[in-house]
Design a protein that fits this description.
Layout lengths: L7 E15 L3 E14 L9 E7 L7 E13 L2 E6 L5 E5 L4 E7 L8 E10 L8 E2 L6 E11 L2 E8 L5 E21 L2 E25 L17 E9 L7 E2 L4 H9 L15 H8 L5 H15 L1 E2 L11 H7 L1 E2 L1 H14 L4 E6 L17 E8 L2 E5 L19 E5 L5 E5 L6 E11 L5 E9 L1 H10 L5 H11 L4 E8 L8 E9 L3 E4 L2 E4 L21 E2 L4 E10 L4 E5 L4 E5 L4 E10 L2 E10 L3 E2 L4 H16 L2 E5 L1
Parallel strand pairs: 1-10, 16-17, 23-30
Antiparallel strand pairs: 1-2, 2-8, 3-7, 4-5, 4-8, 6-7, 9-14, 10-13, 11-14, 12-13, 14-15, 18-19, 18-21, 19-20, 21-22, 23-24, 24-26, 25-26, 27-28, 28-36, 29-35, 30-34, 31-36, 32-33, 33-34
Length: 632
């Protein structure tokens, strides 16, 4: 009732994470979940499919079991039950690290209620599964219990904008240990078994949230999961009897020390023999730090191709990646860091959580899924990522632009590194076109993009043929006809990408009586306000500061006069967040229009949302205003 747009709703979801012990496998974490969902609309049918991802790496494996899966429908006043059959359950391997178990519920209709349970058994006691109280549909009731033996201490962090009710209880539990002893008596050997019951304390923490609104996507949200009400936990300490206490991720210092000491991280930075001869040739005659940085980055990008695997740990190691010319993120960027150090530069790895992996807010190892390189000179940092062909110093792939990273130095200290760019990325369009008495537009356009705009463009269209791209451009711009198209500086990363177009369009103008109506920017600027919600609790994340600029000259057709042009407008958002300027003038038979929209900060806090929404509405309205030409 509170959300008429809801396609489905979680009626309840209950989860419990507890521990089991066996003498063969030791402690494992068992997470049991039961869920009931109601489907309201056809658009909610996707909720009848449930996916559980599980780890299948070399050393340890998780296991997933579904049960009690049923679809309920109300048919002529009677409840009809449809049980999940074996052909509705699937198990697939996603890659060398992850598998996925999936069920698709049978006989789903509008009004169906579906119910299922699953259990995940995991030896990964250091990383319990997160619990999401919220999701993209409303949740009526969400309950989660964490039952932890006294031998484990976890850091627990709640994120999002909800506050669950939390209760904590203490209780006793026990495990039965069996031991055996070989005894020899008068040349006869026998085995004696004995059992010992070990008592221990448990802490049961229960979290309950009710009546939770749906998390709805909107423009410029880096990852909605950053703001979804969730519980995130990680092992911070173990304290077993007669064993010294062991600390894990209690603070950033212990996190980075733990990661640096991994065999597939820190030691990989010390390996240099495999590249030394090649690098001597690369660095020959180079003396300036910036020259060395660019040359080494270019060498790694040209030598080793990214295999699309994320992670801050090497899989096969830097030496093999260099030899095979392919590697994961860690192998490529730890190799890059080692080369920079070999060249005498103060280089260190920076742990990163990508935009798809949420923001690393709390000290924990599993928050990170990526690593880049940083060169420190005079208190300034040059950030580098060799996994992308089109990256450059301080121009990182968009996936990496996720607030902050954590730099790890050789001495074990760390520092927070701002990943968000401060330099404007420009997108400048210069256009000259004429209009004839039938409203047909003929003109030329030159578009120039630099910094992150250029990287995104190069990356998006690297495998698209020019013919396909031109066809796409025509379809996206009112079916214009492009007579000529050219692109320059496509691979010159220090220069802006430039496109030049000659075009004709018959769908830009509207003729009513003796008047022609036309938008000065045609279809090359946004026509809708990207912000729809009335309120917003999470920041607006543009990714990088930018300036969009249009300089347009329009030739008025013979026999027509200019009756109306958009009025000039100047907007400023306080604290230097953004500004918009529209200038128009008429000189003879030429109309001149200049439009500049600039966002000077990559992230705008939620407090400014209503101001930003109003600002973009005025920008959109102004860009959609029409020139009116009247026949003389």
């Amino acid at each position: 009732p509170k959300d008429s747009s809801a396609v489905a709703a979680v009626l309840f979801e209950k989860g419990k994470t507890s521990f089991e012990y066996s003498q063969n496998d030791g402690w494992i974490i068992v997470t049991a979940v039961k869920t009931r969902i109601k489907i309201y609309k056809k658009e909610g049918y996707d909720w009848a499919t449930k996916n559980i991802r599980y780890y299948i790496g070399n050393r340890v494996k998780e296991k997933v079991y579904f049960s009690d899966a049923m679809t309920y429908n109300l048919i002529n006043g009677a409840i009809e039950k449809s049980k999940l059959k074996s052909d509705g359950e699937f198990d697939e391997v996603l890659n060398r690290y992850w598998g996925r178990k999936k069920i698709t519920m049978p006989n789903v209709k509008e009004g169906s209620v579906i119910e299922f349970a699953y259990v995940v058994k995991s030896p990964l006691v250091e990383s319990p599964r997160d619990w999401d109280f919220q999701t993209t549909i409303p949740v009526n009731y969400s309950e989660f219990q964490m039952i932890v033996p006294e031998y484990f201490v976890y850091s627990s962090n709640l994120k999002g904008f909800i506050t669950p009710k939390v209760t904590v209880e203490k209780s006793q539990n026990s495990i039965l240990l069996t031991s055996k002893e070989r005894v020899t008596n008068r040349n006869v050997t026998s085995t004696n078994f004995s059992q010992e019951r070990v008592e221990f304390k448990e802490t049961r923490t229960t979290y309950i949230s009710e009546d939770l609104p749906a998390m709805k996507e909107e423009s410029f949200v880096n990852n909605i999961a950053n703001y979804t009400g969730s519980l995130v936990q990680e092992l911070s300490m173990t304290k077993f009897p007669n064993v010294p206490e062991k600390f894990y991720s209690t603070d950033w210092a212990s996190v980075v020390k733990t990661i640096y000491d991994y065999d597939d991280f820190g030691p990989e930075l010390n390996k240099t023999g495999y590249f030394e001869e090649d690098l001597k040739g690369v660095l020959a005659s180079l003396t300036k730090p910036e020259e060395k940085i660019e040359a080494i980055l270019k060498h790694v990008k040209a030598t080793v191709k990214w295999n699309d695997y994320y992670g801050y740990s090497c899989n096969d190691g830097v030496r093999k990646a260099y030899k095979d010319k392919t590697g994961n993120v860690a192998e490529i960027n730890l190799m890059l860091t080692a080369m920079l150090r070999y060249a005498g530069l103060n280089a260190n790895p920076v742990l990163v959580s990508t935009r798809s992996n949420v923001i690393a807010i709390f000290p924990n190892r599993t928050a990170f899924n990526y690593v880049i390189a940083a060169v420190e000179t005079g208190g300034n940092y040059t950030l580098l990522d060799a996994t992308n062909l089109y990256s450059a110093p301080n121009v990182l792939p968009f996936r990496v632009l996720n607030w902050f990273g954590r730099l790890i130095r050789k001495d074990g200290t760390s520092a927070e590194i701002d990943l968000m760019p401060s330099i404007l990325s420009n997108d400048v369009t210069t256009m000259f076109y004429s209009i004839d008495e039938k409203g047909i537009v003929t003109g030329k356009l030159r578009r120039q993009q630099d910094v992150h705009n250029a990287l995104l463009f190069r990356d998006a269209y690297k495998n698209i043929k020019e013919e396909s791209y031109v066809e796409k451009l025509e379809n996206e711009n009112n079916k214009i006809e492009i007579q000529e198209y050219s692109r320059t500086n496509e691979k010159e990363l220090n220069l802006p990408v430039i496109e030049a177009i000659s075009f004709t369009g018959s769908n830009f103008s509207e003729i009513i009586g003796d008047k022609i109506y036309i938008k000065p920017l045609l279809s090359f600027a946004g026509s809708q306000n990207p912000f729809k919600q009335d309120n917003r609790e999470y920041p607006v994340d543009f990714g990088f500061p930018f300036m969009d600029k249009y300089v347009v000259n329009i030739a008025v057709p013979d026999g027509f006069t200019v009756e109306k042009i958009p009025e000039a407008l100047n907007l400023v958002i306080e604290n230097g967040i953004g500004s918009f300027k529209c200038l128009t003038s008429v000189s003879g038979n030429t109309i001149q229009v200049m439009v500049v929209n600039q966002m000077s900060t990559p992230i705008v806090v939620a407090d400014y949302y209503s101001i930003l929404k109003e600002y973009f509405q005025k920008v959109t309205d102004k860009q959609n205003e029409k020139i009116v030409l009247r026949k003389i």
